[in-house]
Amino acid sequence: MVPPLGHTPREFRALKMARDAEESFLAWRDDDGCQQILMLGDRKQVTIGRLSDRDIVLTDAAVSREHCMLFGRGSRWRIRNDSTNGTFVAAQRILEPVWLQDDDKITVGPTMFLFGCPPDPDDTDVAHETPLPKITEREQDVLVELCRPLFEAGKANATATTKDIAERLHRAPSGVSEILTRLYAKFDITGKDRRTALALHVMKIGIVSRRHL
Question: Could you tell me if 95 and 137 are in contact, meaning their C-beta atoms sit under 8 angstroms apart?
Answer without folding.
Answer: yes
